[in-house]
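Q: Sequence in, structure out?
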Amino acid sequence: MRLREDLSGTLEAFDVIRHDLSIVKPDEDVGNLVSIIIDSPYEIIAVVDGGKFIGVVTTKNILRALTSKSGGLKARDLVAGDYPILSVNWSLSKALGVMLLGGVCCAPVVYEDGSLAGVVTLSSLSKVMIEDIDVEELHAAD
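A: Exactly. Output:
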C-alpha cells in the first residue's frame, strides 16, 4: 500500500514540487502584486533576490497593504515572516505536518542553498499519498 510507504518517508517534498509559482523581486510594487495574485493558482507569491529565496507575499498581506494608508509598499515590505517553508529533503509526512500545523494549503520548497525549488500543495501531497490505496480495502477496514 503506497500510503504506508510514503508516510514512512520514501518520497520527499522534492518529488511533488510544482514549478508554476509566481516569482517577483523584492522591489515589486503592490499594484503589480495584485495583478499577479489574481492570475495565480496559489495564495502566495515567492520573493527572490539574486536567486536567493527571501520569502512569500500572501493574498492577506496584499489586501492589508491595499487597505492601509501606507503608500509605496514593495514586495519586501509584505513578506510573511511566519509562513511555513519546506525543504526539498523533507519526507512527505513532514511536509504535510508542517503545512497542516501552519494552516496553509501551499508552501514554497527551497534547496539547501536557500534557492527556490518550487511549491507543494496539500492537493499534490494528498494525491501522491493515496494514489494506490484501494477504496474497497479502506471500507472493509471500518
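The chain has seven helices and six strands.
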